[in-house]
Amino acid sequence: MKGSTAGGTNKTKSIGILGFDGLTVLDLAGPMEALAVARTDVDQEKARACYAVSIVGFSSKTFVSDSKVTFRSEEHTSE
Predict the structure, then answer these.
(1) What does the DSSP assignment read for 55-76?
(2) Which has the closest alpha carbon to 39: 7, 10, 16?
(3) 77 contacts 59 by C-beta, under 8 angstroms
(4) Is 35 exposed, middle or buried, given 0-12, 13-18 or 19+ CB atoms closer than 10 A?
(5) What's the pTM value of the predicted model, to 2 decimals?
(6) Measured between alpha carbons, how far is residue 13 from residues 7, 39, 62 in Å?
(7) If we measure between CA atoms, which residue out of 16, 50, 9, 13 comes closest to residue 32?
(8) What is the largest CA-CA distance in the chain?
(9) Using one digit for the tens of pLDDT, what is the confidence trace for 33-71?
(10) Banded pLDDT at 1 (limits 50, 70, 90)
(11) What pLDDT sits at residue 75?
């Protein structure tokens, strides 16, 4: 069904992916990439993003992967 979405809503959904020290880069980047490229038809000429994806840090704004890549989250949870 072109132009419709599940539940009848046409809003972009916000998704936060949790980042923490020791995670693997692929476990963060893979889901982010898949969600970031998802599109739905608005009409015959336009498409919009299904998801607005952000990184959420577990306890701080920065965290380091198992391969020593440092990430900066947009938000963080409070302990």
Answers:
(1) EEESSSSEEE-TT--EEE-SEE
(2) 10
(3) yes
(4) middle
(5) 0.73
(6) 12, 11, 24
(7) 16
(8) 46
(9) 999 999 998 777 888 999 999 999 987 789 999 999 999
(10) very low
(11) 86
